[in-house]
Write a structure and sequence with these properties.
This protein is an alpha/beta fold. Helices cover 53% and strands 14% of the residues. The chain contains 14 helices and seven strands.
Length: 320
């Protein structure tokens, strides 16, 4: 039997993502677009926008300019291929956001399929400046090849996909906790129970309205309403990653989120993907009132599940 810890689920997911990225933001997508546009038009724009020294340096290694420098005619033809240049230059999606280039991230994802020539030209000028800086910093002893730029794009993409995978794991973990909470609530057959994708509402035993919101910072926020007044009852941070070596970082992230919620009297729980001793957990997240492990919560009737259920019923004001 294969040890579950050794099953490469992440890599299987990455393989499926690579297949789509090849056709959008990697070297294959660039090659296809260059063939559609034609080198005469591309060469004209390269000489208009890129310094002669930079083009000559690439040419000395037998490389065409568009391998590093984007031009508007290429980006206009296939806007998503702009992602290739971002990846080669090692620019993160967050950095794009900080520079006001959020639209281009949507374009890379296929959410937007057309751009104006002016927009493409503005982006190309920014990326060309970055590309010239990169090229000038590469030692003359370095063998500059198409493969080098391809490898640079893969390194950046790997980091990007790692972040995306972590988000997916987190979303799945929050979904599991949501179902756990809903199952406990439904046992009580409450009045006015309403379920939406990111929100649950009901009336508790005291006749007060309770809302459970699922989002981020915190992942789960439970509040009670009475007339025009409301108070937060419970904040839950869910860290679903199953890599034990990264548990300290995940607990630190939970602590930061808990500290953002300044309301007094609110209970703070942290639910993690791997069991960890409470002493270690409390060092990383001292503001957490209770720690739970997802694996233990999924065992109906376990001591940890019963504790979670009992505490949740009390906080929500559910009938016994």
């Amino acid at each position: 039997m294969v040890d579950a810890a050794l099953i490469p689920n992440k890599q299987l997911w990455v393989i499926s993502r690579l297949k789509s990225e090849r056709g959008r933001t990697l070297r294959d997508a660039l090659r296809e677009t260059v063939e559609m546009v034609g080198v005469r038009i591309i060469d004209h724009e390269l000489h208009e926008l890129v310094s002669g020294n930079a083009l000559n340096k690439l040419g000395a290694y037998g490389l065409r300019g568009e391998i590093l420098f984007p031009v508007p005619c290429v980006i206009k033809k296939k806007p998503a291929v702009s992602g290739y240049y971002r990846l080669v230059l090692g620019i993160s999606q967050k950095e794009y956001g900080r520079k006001g280039l959020d639209k281009w991230i949507k374009i890379e994802k296929g959410e937007i399929s057309t751009v104006l020539y002016r927009e493409a030209e503005e982006l190309c000028k920014s990326l060309i400046r970055a590309g010239e800086y990169l090229l000038s910093g590469i030692s003359s002893k370095e063998n500059i090849t198409e493969e080098l730029f391809h490898e640079l794009s893969l390194i950046t993409l790997g980091s990007q996909l790692d972040g995306s995978y972590r988000v997916i794991i987190g979303q799945k973990a929050v979904s599991v906790i949501r179902e756990l909470i809903v199952d406990i609530i439904k046992e009580k057959q409450l009045r006015g129970l309403q379920e939406k994708r990111n929100e649950i509402k009901f009336v508790n035993a005291a006749g007060r309205y309770v809302t459970i919101k699922l989002g981020s910072d915190p992942d789960v926020l439970i509040s009670e309403f009475s007339g025009n007044q409301h108070r937060h009852l419970l904040a839950i941070e869910v860290k679903g990653g199953t890599d034990p070596s990264n548990i300290h970082n995940r607990l630190g992230e939970a602590e930061k989120s808990h500290l953002k919620l300044s309301a007094s009297g609110v209970m703070r729980w942290t639910i993690i993907g791997v069991p960890v001793d409470e002493k270690t957990a409390r060092l990383r997240s001292p503001s957490t009132n209770r720690f739970y492990a997802i694996s233990n919560l999924l065992v109906n009737g376990s001591q940890e599940y019963e504790s979670f259920r009992r505490e949740l019923i009390s906080i929500l004001g559910l009938p016994e």
